[in-house]
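Final paragraph of the annual report: two paired records, presented back to back.
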Amino acid sequence: MANTTSSFPAAPVSRRQSGSLALSSVMSKIGWIIAQVFLWIFFASVAFPIIWTIMTSFKTSRELFTNPWALPAVPQITNYIKAWNEMKVGTYFFNSVFVSFTSLAITMLLGSMAAYVIARVNIKINRGLYFFFLAGWLIPYFLTFIPAWFLHRQLGTISKDGGHLALIIQYSAGSLPFTIFFLYAFFKTLPRELEESAVIDGANPYQVFFQVMLPLAKSGILTVGIFNFIGIWNEYPWALVTISRDELKTLPLGLANLLQRSQYQTDWGAMFAGFVLTLVPTFVVYAIYQSRLTEGITVGALKG
């Protein structure tokens, strides 16, 4: 039986085409090298101040001013003990932990529930609610201080001596727009068959949300939770306006006030040790959840 299929020889590549391919390959390699150079420069600009701060936290004040770029002659572990106890960094640290995690819990609970309702429940006002929350994201942060302060004063959440309640309420409310915007995309694309199956099995709306839908959006919740935690942990201006008692100050506010009061008599090694302690929770959270954070950002971008 004769072979009915015919084979055609590959068209020869012209000299112009081969030259164009070679030029494209060279330009691609040059672009890759330039990108790598910029990335390494950016990495160095971020990593160097952090490494220098950690190195300085083990020095004496004399070493810092005589030779700031050298390694410490004898690492001063006592700087961390002095910062934790004498400079009250331990008190500031636990205040920040309490305020940050309480605010984060409230934000994630209310934000995830609101995002779920807006994305999944078919009511006419949903789109308006979505843009209402996004509108809060457009208001400059500092413009809210004066009206927020008077509002908290009337509510009694800001006392004469200050308190944490005003911080928790403000941080939770301020983080809601971003949380709802981010989680909306996750809940919007989850299959409705899962909800219908849960309802058929007898689950009420709360069971559907907490036991079925919320676990499916875990990567998004973790991602937005990390961003909110970093923002709340490092917040300074509202705490400055609200907190007056030294034992209630958060870590950024406490360290800034220590620096202002001490002037030229500061134990700089202990001060830098306090700065390092401020960075530790952020680094720990990012190191543990780095892969989940990247996954959540990627999935959210694709779903959005």
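The closing record of the year follows.
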Amino acid sequence: MRALMLRAAPIAASDAPVIIGGESGTGKEVLARALHANSPRRDQPFLAVNVAALPADLLESVLFGHTKGAFTGAGAPKPGLFEAADGGTLLLDEIAEMPFSLQAKLLRALQDGEIRRVGDTRAFLVDIRIFCATNQDLRTCVAERRFREDLFYRLCVFRLMVPPLRERSGDLLPLAKMFLEQEGQATGGFTARAQAALASYPWPGNVRELASAVQHGAVLAGDLDVDLAHLPEEIGSPKTAAPAVGRLRPLAEVEREHIARVLEACGGHQTEAARALGIGRTTLWRKLKALGLEAKE
């Protein structure tokens, strides 16, 4: 990731468009905001819109604005994001999902620096920098005729790929600690077992999943360091290959082992263990008695 940021440094100083690719949740918008913050436009607006979240007719109005009476419900003129971001940066997230019919209008805006509100015959100039984010291969989209070739080459001045979290082992713990601080645990941390579990998990949801996992752990840990038992089950107990039929274990045996592990992580205290397990203290006491386990009050 550090190499990516070093490569991005001169790009930030340019006004050219940038395509940021990578899997969902890798932090593409975070990188776009970092580029904007280090550019000459840093004191101007940074706006973002998820292209895939809006229908085509509404997206055109959101981007370019509309005049009064342009369509049913347009009771007053309204500027679009191109006007609102004038002088700054506009991020078009999930650009591959932009309707084909609207791509021609975007191309015209990029080439001429002019936009027209929906329902207007007058064009006016805007000065913005365009960033695009996508988890798809735009070249494939062009080959499949889902994305205009001329728009692709107009946008593809610089391309940056944000690697998935599983390929950025050096970023994992710093990011986790940053998210933990955001949860109000400025002095808290992770136990060695929690760090090992975080490092060994493949993170299919990337940075977004890591942020959720840390929030989950922070809530359960309270004022303590986040331990293995505080992390979501799929991280604290990663799935392994299914055992052979002859080695299937009784539920009581598996439950006993898991409760014992949680108790150990909580220093043997029933109240903390019950909170981590998501069950009532009385329920835990009954299970301990049935399974022959002991714990502190």
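Residues 240-246 have pLDDT under 50 and may be disordered. This concludes the annual technical report; the extension proposal builds directly on these records.
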